[in-house]
Specification:
mainly alpha, Growth Hormone, Chain: A, two-stranded antiparallel sheet, 21 helices, disordered N terminus, Ferroportin-1
């Protein structure tokens, strides 16, 4: 579907309240006279309200994602087990429920989706913070009840609530960043690119500042105070975001309209099926279910099914239709290519920073490098807007892909540069028992020839400090410096410089999804896209689990580059097809 459809016409007329006023202020004289008025109009306009609401939401998300990992480690005796379980639960739930979340976004009014997602997310975090405060305050007493099983119950409740909050955050992101801003910009590609870039800049800034803020509170005060700080933030954020989103919904009438001719077009079959399953077959069209699948049960057998099985079958059908809708999209290859970029260790997560620690990089230097990386990401958003205006959206993705791959060549060079700990001999069958440093005590803490060569990337027990996404370990063994810093220098040069092309490419694919997907399928397709992203992210953790030692990291780098190359190749194939079709540019 192109941006000049019926929905585009309705939305373009609705958002004239802001964008027509921008064109009226083209005259320098009028603009000089009306600067205060213009500023007031902008501050009351939908764009600014969305930015503020998004900033509050992103800040809360970044604080919570950072803090929950620290809290789980503290609760389980400085062990990474609960953190690993939490990561698997979060990734698995989005992978399984992404299509259902997107379908729910499509089937309900925009204001109800945004308000429900916002309420569920913030209330879940608030309740979870209260539970954590009680556990931290009365941990010894709780451990004595039910022979310690009450502690397990508390851990389970915390993980479930945190996972519910993440699912609600996913729904809110799909609703606001993938749907609302398309309507707010009046389906104008230029305004849409500007809003996407601004939202990404806000995300980059909050990714650095929010964890530092809550980390300082937890360090200077306590974990209980940290939980209280997050609790208070979520309550205030809930109120402010609710008011702002409600105002945006009121001043942009197009948000209340979903074109009848397009709405739920892809889900008519599954809607009929749900009606048939729950209310019998008498009111159903003759072919309402027969076309759904060749494996569908005969109509006469449906009333015999238990209600829970009928609903489960309806949910499975919704998921199946969502994945089919994703596969049918013209931008399918571009979205799949973006998902492949998630299978990488070349980012500032705990894996890469843990490897840097084993190579003698200090925590303060890692924090500086993360700040430089954030600046590179901001430059990527600027590059995106410039390239899109000069060459168009599809070509911008090609240029960004090429820039990303060229910068990653530095990471490949680091694998073979002096100072690289890569040692393929550890993959021999005779050394399998030593993988992860678990063979014995003398191997676990031994550092022959090169410091930290046998230390896992993430030790199972240690005194751990957290700075943003950086893991810092106390009592590090002496002599952990590598023979040369050339390898680690090339690695971080590649990772940081690649952020420019990476974020420009990410914004390109994001806008392609916004422009190409029809309004009635926007939620479910973006939900499946989130599922794909989490699936590929899970693969990168499985890679680290299978090759956890610093000697393996070079292999992980090469595999990561291959996945990234495959993803960009998919985008090149999409771009080749897209350039063959005439496109109208706004």
């Amino acid at each position: 579907m192109s941006l000049s459809s019926e929905g585009a016409q309705a939305a373009a007329a609705a958002v004239a309240v802001e964008f027509e006023q921008e064109s009226d202020r083209d005259s320098p004289i009028i603009r000089a006279r009306n600067i205060p008025r213009s500023a007031l109009i902008y501050l009351r306009g939908p764009k600014f309200l969305i930015y503020v609401s998004g900033a509050l939401s992103m800040w809360g998300d970044r604080m919570w994602h950072f803090a929950i990992s620290v809290f789980l480690i503290e609760l389980y005796g400085h062990n990474l087990l609960l953190t690993g379980i939490f990561g698997l639960v979060v990734a698995g739930s989005v992978l399984l429920l992404g299509a259902l979340i997107g379908d729910w976004v499509d089937r309900n009014p925009r204001n109800k989706v945004a308000h429900a997602s916002l309420f569920i997310q913030n209330i879940s975090v608030t309740i979870c913070s209260i539970v954590l405060m009680l556990v931290f305050s009365y941990k010894k007493w709780i451990e004595e009840i039910w022979d310690g099983w009450l502690t397990v119950v508390c851990y389970t409740v915390v993980i479930i609530l945190a996972d519910v909050a993440n699912l609600a955050s996913t729904a809110l992101t799909i609703a606001i960043q993938r749907d609302w801003i398309v309507v707010i910009t009046g389906y104008n590609r230029g305004h849409l690119a500007g809003m996407n870039a601004t939202m990404r800049r806000i995300d980059q800034v909050t990714n650095i500042l929010a964890p530092l803020a809550v980390g300082q509170v937890m360090t200077l005060a306590s974990n209980v105070v940290g939980c209280g700080f997050i609790l208070g933030w979520n309550v205030v954020s809930l109120i402010v975001e609710f008011i702002f989103l409600s105002r945006v919904y009121r001043i942009v009438p197009a948000l209340s309209v979903k074109p009848p001719a397009l709405e739920h077009q892809s889900s008519l079959k599954k809607s009929r099926e749900r009606v048939c399953l729950q209310g019998g077959t008498s009111s159903c069209p003759p072919g309402g279910i027969a076309d759904e699948s060749s494996s569908a049960l005969p109509l006469q057998d449906l009333p015999r099914m238990p209600l829970c099985m009928q609903r489960l079958r309806g949910l499975i059908s919704t998921c199946r239709e969502g994945w089919r809708a994703y596969y049918r999209q013209p931008v399918f290859l571009a979205g799949l290519g973006l998902a492949f970029l998630y299978t990488t260790v070349l980012g500032f997560d705990c894996i890469t920073t843990g490897y840097a620690y084993t190579q003698g990089i200090s925590g303060s230097l890692l924090s500086i490098l993360m700040g430089v990386s954030a600046v590179a990401g901001l430059l990527g958003t600027v590059l995106f807007t410039k390239l899109r205006k000069a060459f168009g959206l599809v070509v911008t993705g090609v240029i960004s892909s090429a820039l990303h791959l060229v910068c990653l060549l530095l990471c490949v060079c680091s694998v073979f540069a002096p100072g690289s700990p890569m040692d393929l001999s550890v993959l021999n069958p005779g050394n399998v028992s030593d993988v992860g440093g678990m063979a014995g005590g003398h191997q676990r803490h031994g550092y022959p020839m090169r410091g930290a060569s046998n230390q896992p990337l993430l030790p199972d027990r240690s005194s751990i400090h957290w700075t943003n996404n950086t893991v810092l370990f106390e009592n590090a063994p002496a002599g952990t410096e590598p023979e040369s810093y050339i390898s680690i220098t090339l690695l971080f040069l590649g990772v940081i410089s690649a952020r420019v092309g990476l974020w420009s490419f990410d914004l390109t694919v994001t806008q392609l999804l916004q422009e190409t997907i029809c309004e009635s399928e926007r939620g479910v397709v973006n939900g499946v896209q989130s599922s794909m992203n989490y699936l590929m992210d899970l693969l990168h953790f499985l890679m680290v689990i299978s090759a956890p030692q610093p000697q393996h990291f070079g292999i992980l780098v090469i595999i990561s580059v291959l996945f990234i190359f495959t993803g960009h190749t998919m985008y090149f194939l999409y771009a080749r097809k897209a350039k063959r079709k005439p496109r109208t540019n706004t």
